[in-house]
Amino acid sequence: MDGKDTANYIEIRPNLNIFQQGRWTNTFTAGIGYIFNSQQSMMTELTSGIEYTCNDQLHLNVYLGQYYYSGRYASSQETFFGISAAWYFAPSHPKSLISQPSKK
């Protein structure tokens, strides 16, 4: 069978921080996408991870997830495991979305 061994696709996958305790964060990603020129063109993703913040700029992550592929006549799924490291060039100092009103 001749053909490409890679696929072009587009996916929307927001990453949510579910719970944070000290330097540890539980993350969840739910994605949906489309694979071009594929018999199973609809793709969904569910991923969960544990992230450790070493300092303001270095974060380590261990994650586990599944891709689900579906088409008109067939469907399949793949499970994956991974580790990642992220280096932030400018440290972020996020503020809470909900804060107490300031007293004057």
Description:
The chain is mainly beta. The chain contains no helices and six strands. The chain has strands at residues 9-12, 15-21, 24-35, 42-53, 58-70, 75-87. Strands 1, 2, 3, 4, 5 and 6 form a six-stranded antiparallel β-sheet that branches. Strand 3 (24-35) and strand 4 form a beta hairpin. 1% of the residues are buried.
> Can you give the mean pLDDT?
88
State the end-to-end CA separation.
73 Å
Major β-sheet annotation: 6 strands, antiparallel
Helix content estimate: under 10%
What characteristic shape results from the CA principal axes?
elongated
**Strand element count:** 6
Task: Provide a quick synopsis of the model.
This protein is an all-beta fold and 104 residues long. It is built from no helices and six strands. Strands 1, 2, 3, 4, 5 and 6 form a six-stranded antiparallel β-sheet that branches.
List the helices and strands and how they pair.
Blueprint: E1 9-12, E2 15-21, E3 24-35, E4 42-53, E5 58-70, E6 75-87
Antiparallel strand pairs: 1-3, 2-3, 3-4, 4-5, 5-6
Descriptive keywords:
six-stranded antiparallel sheet; 6 strands; 104 residues; mainly beta
